[in-house]
Amino acid sequence: MNILERDPSDPQKQKKEGINPQLKLVLELGPLLVFFFANARGEWLAQKFPALAELGGPIFVATGLFMAATALALIASWLLTRTLPIMPLVSGVVVLIFGALTLYLQDDVFIKMKPTIVNTLFGGVLLGGLFFGKSLLGYVFDSAFSLDAEGWRKLTFRWGLFFLFLALVNEVVWRNFSTDAWVTFKVWGIMPITLLFTFSQMPLIMRHSLEEKAKEEQASK
Fold it and tell me: How many angstroms separate the first and last alpha carbons of the chain?
């Protein structure tokens, strides 16, 4: 049985790994929203649920609930598709490891460094894959786009650089601003930046879309 999501070229991928896009978005963003809410209302949550007070201040309550929500999202993904998406899985493992260190040592530096580690890892993997002739971004976007080889190479390169940019931005924010400001930026800043970057890549995607090329060939006949 294949535990991880299938290679984009695997004909069984679409057949066995389909999931509602809205539900997929909830599974990916849900833990972040839990993290933001718990950090903002940490003291209230600790009063309502005394067991949470044992974790420490609001950021530690948020970290504990973030870990739980991340684990539940991965479990839900497994139950729905019988596979684990690679990038959320990697991110989830880092959340659990750094979250555990944060709670054990009572030091929020570890959870703040998590986005830096994850984005550096993703960026390094994408750029490293290109070095070995592999355009790995297909694992993320193959269900949304069908591109030629050159298109995947260019898009993979751009996303690799973008992940490294996100890692740098996270370092600047958590080292120079308050914890509340960092949490707010993590939840409400990163997503708009990512959406803007994604939309900015649409011209490249349209130029290298196999579907568009097929339409042009049909029209020319």
Answer: 45
- One domain for residues 93 and 25: yes
* 147 φ/ψ angles, rounded to the nearest 5 degrees: -115, 160
3-class DSSP state for residue 84?
strand
Please report where in the chains the tokens 């849900």 appear, as a residue: 30
Mean pLDDT (whole number) for 24-33: 82
Structure tokens at 184: 């707010």
Q: How far is 202 from 99, CA to CA, in rounded Å?
A: 36
Q: Return the ∠ at Cα 98 (arms to 94 and 99), rounded to 5°.
A: 110
Q: For residues 96 and 8, state if they share a domain.
A: yes
Is residue 32 within 8 A of residue 13, CB to CB? The reply is: no
Q: What is the pTM of this model?
A: 0.75
- Span 53-80, pLDDT tens digits: 889 888 999 999 999 999 999 999 888 8
pLDDT confidence of residue 161: 96
- Which token pair is 124? 């390094």
Domain match, 113 and 98 both = no
